[in-house]
Design goal:
It is a single chain. By secondary structure, this protein is α+β, with helices and mostly antiparallel strands. It folds into 3 domains: about 220 residues, 3-Layer(aba) Sandwich (Rossmann fold), CATH 3.40.50; about 280 residues, Glycoside hydrolase/deacetylase (TIM Barrel, Alpha-Beta Barrel); about 160 residues, no CATH class. The chain is built from 16 helices and 37 strands. The strands form 9 sheets. It has an 8-stranded mixed β-sheet with strand order 3-2-4-5-9-8-7-6, covered by helices on one side. Helix 7 links the parallel strand 14 and strand 15. Helix 7 packs parallel to helix 9 and helix 10 packs parallel to helix 11. It is globular, with a radius of gyration of 28 Å.
Amino acid sequence: MKAKWLIWIISITLGMFYAIAEQAADPSAEPTLVPRRILVLFGRDPKVNEGLRLNPVDTLTASTLQAHLEWLGYEVDYFDAGHADPPSPSAEVAGIIMDGTLQIDPDRELGLADWMNTQRLRKIPFLLIGDLPVFHSAAINRLQQDFGLIGDFRPIRNLKSVEITTFAPDFFTREIKIEPREKDFQSVIAPQGSEVFLTLTGKDDTGGLHRFDPVFRAPWGVVWLGPYVTFEAAASQRFYYADPYALIHAWLGDISFPAPDVTTRMGRRLFFSHIDGDGFASRSSRPGQPTCAELIRDRILRRYPFPVTVSVIEADIRGHAAGLRPEDAPLYEDIARSIFSLPNVEPASHSYSHPFLWDETDANPGVYPHRFVPLHPAANYTELSLQREIVASVKFINERLVPPGRKVGLMLWSGNCRPGAQALAVTRQLGIENMNGGDTTVSEMYPSLINIAPKVMPWGDELQVYAANQNEFMYSAGFSGPFYGGFGKVVQTFEHTGTPRRFKPVNVYYHFYSAATISAERALKKVLDWCWAEPLHYISAGEYVKTVRDSRAATIQRIASGHWKLKSGPHMQTWRLPATFGVPNLETSKGILGYRQTGDQIYIHTDARPEVELILTPPQQRQTLTRLHIAESSGPIEVTKSERREISIINRSPLATKVLLGGLGPDETMEVIYTRGTTNETRTLKPDKTGLLSLLLLEGHTADVRATAGQGK
């Protein structure tokens, strides 16, 4: 027994030695690019679907896997193979998904099978989701030959009985029970040597046996076929069969690189809030019937100091919408100016006429009685114009409503929130960001993880950024009530998307009409009070969108085990790793301001430079780290000096900002010099029992901190 323990201790010690030695390897070693792009092939032949293009948002990948791939650090790119042959994947591609929506001309199927085999030989792992990508005999024969698939891929009908004969419970969720189903039974059998997670065996009326392997892992990737992708209990209620993380790990292997994280900054979960312009001029049920905009201004925006992005609909402000009076436009403009003059407000546009349907080429636009809100005939606006909706509305707000020095930086989509590539191109050419869309509603009412939307959605070469969760319309049955118990349930979404995995920031998203009734306003205040009590980091919606865009463009280079170069734009300031990987070595890393462990994850914050170098220290050595660093901050800060026992911080937030410093010993004494303008104040502080020192910096405050006595000086 003693010998076994000795061997175990020696092996652990050697493992640590080699890990540290590898981390300290020659810094001139050639870095290798970490592939983190996922290429999705989807689409339909132009002859199908009445000539309308299928969009990425309507794929199985978008609705089932994209959000979870993003959480793991991957970015999803879509290619419409229904209209063109797929390209050769770049070195950045970590895996390929053949989406079940892909249906192409039979004459092109053989070429697609050849393309797939080329990528198989390059060792790029495949995921086949929903359905197999070919339907005709020549292409089927090629997949059978190259991929080892068995069967003719045809449906097997008129089965008398079906039973489950292989089931791997750890691979599946407990959201819905897996039952044997005769429907969609296919002649598909995994290649020899595969790991099969689910097998169904069916018997026909002649006693013949048939086998169907809908979920398995082969040497070249994973197959996840219907009907065992999702279970649709109702139009708005779906559940996973397979655990998406078990499936992704089976497909791509262990994920061992830092993930760009858009949920957290400076160790705290992000908070942002935005208001769609609907209901601005609506009269409330209060005495005197003030407008909803006045009530939101006085009872919400002035009461809660959070940054908030506020949009207006130009037709409402100008009294052009049916039901409003053009002669009231001066009143509405004055109210809008008073809102946009508030220091915590970021201006945005919610269009001219509030389009419900943005893209005429959209194959799945939804059903609405009008393309945009009905207007007065005098508005002389009968055909939707993207220039009028976006460019002109932004110009109106900039020239008539916002104070000097401020500009609209964000377009918040209305209606179906499916803008299409043309509208997105207009915002990009105008130099503003865009947001809205995405149906993150996971809660007690919608418990499945499938109710977490991705952070972005591509439309052609353009990119739509999704809101982090949905608004009060979705939590109150189309704003028909109950109002108090309705939007208050968004807190459940915040909780479900915060733990055990932090999927999303806290996003309080609502409309001006939340002030229409006392109960609706109470629901909104309940949500904001919950946010005020939570340890959050406050930013604007515009800053969130820029963070998302920078995260998608980020690149990772591996130098050695536990050693990476991380490149991104200035807004992407957080990288995340499992806590088992260790913590940053702040003496040897470059551009790292600190870190914070939350649950089983380490959130690492950077100083926003375009390239940082992250070197980890094994978990066993984390107690020896004594360099002063940022553990948390409730708002934007700038670190102007960072040395072993000294740090200087400037509060860049208009709010008082709480900062926690780590890396101190419990007996250490710290001298803190607060500076504001020409005023200095010196304090002597000690950390708490966990080694954290708490600072409160007012707007414009600078804090110079240095150790004066105790451990680590």
